[in-house]
Amino acid sequence: MDILDELTRAHRELVDGKRKTVTLRRRYDAEVEDVWDACTDPDRLRRWFAPVSGELRLGGTYQIDGNAGGEILHCEPPRRFTISWLFGENPGFSEVEVSLTPEGDATLFELRHTAEVPEEFWSQFGPGATGVGWDLVLLGLALHLTGAEKPEESTFHLTDDGRAYILGSSQAWGEAHRAAGGTPAEVEATVAAVSSFYAPQP
């Protein structure tokens, strides 16, 4: 797999209002049942995403090791689920919806994250703060579905491919920001901040 080629496989959108919505859409060459299982089975999630515990059923709660937790708000196997995405001591509204659409032997995957974001955080980082993280998640899923190994998270940004992928993702979210009405100055500043956060100079 060409990791950098994975960047071009995703379409990114931003809706910039009181609540911010970032959307990623891409096609996986795997049947919808396989993609659903990869996204909902704890044993598989551990291999490409992170350890996830809890009652993984409608109305149940989940916790991602070292990350967000929340409630499973909607579940329609193997097509769609919605979860609250709560992180930190005083999280505001934040929900993630994943939709899967079969396309023959392939699957159209769409992830939509809608959240209330503090203005000071948004003005500093823009959509890339969330978007780059989700791009890395989609890369992990792509590797998993093709049988490839997940890169080591703690050192991925130090590899040539990892750094190029992260910086490319940051730029792509800058373009989505611009398309949603961000000014050139806003886009330049947020892309620089996100790039420095995810891929600091060694």
From TrEMBL:
Q: Where does the record locate the signal sequence feature?
A: none
- Pinpoint the Activator of Hsp90 ATPase homologue 1/2-like C-terminal domain residues: 29-141
Q: Membrane-spanning residues where?
A: none
InterPro entries noted in UniProt: ASHA1/2-like_C, START-like_dom_sf
Q: Name one Pfam family in it.
A: AHSA1
Q: Which family does it belong to?
A: Belongs to the AHA1 family.
What's this protein's name? Uncharacterized conserved protein YndB, AHSA1/START domain
Q: Which organism is it from?
A: Nonomuraea maritima
Taxonomic lineage from the root: Bacteria, Bacillati, Actinomycetota, Actinomycetes, Streptosporangiales
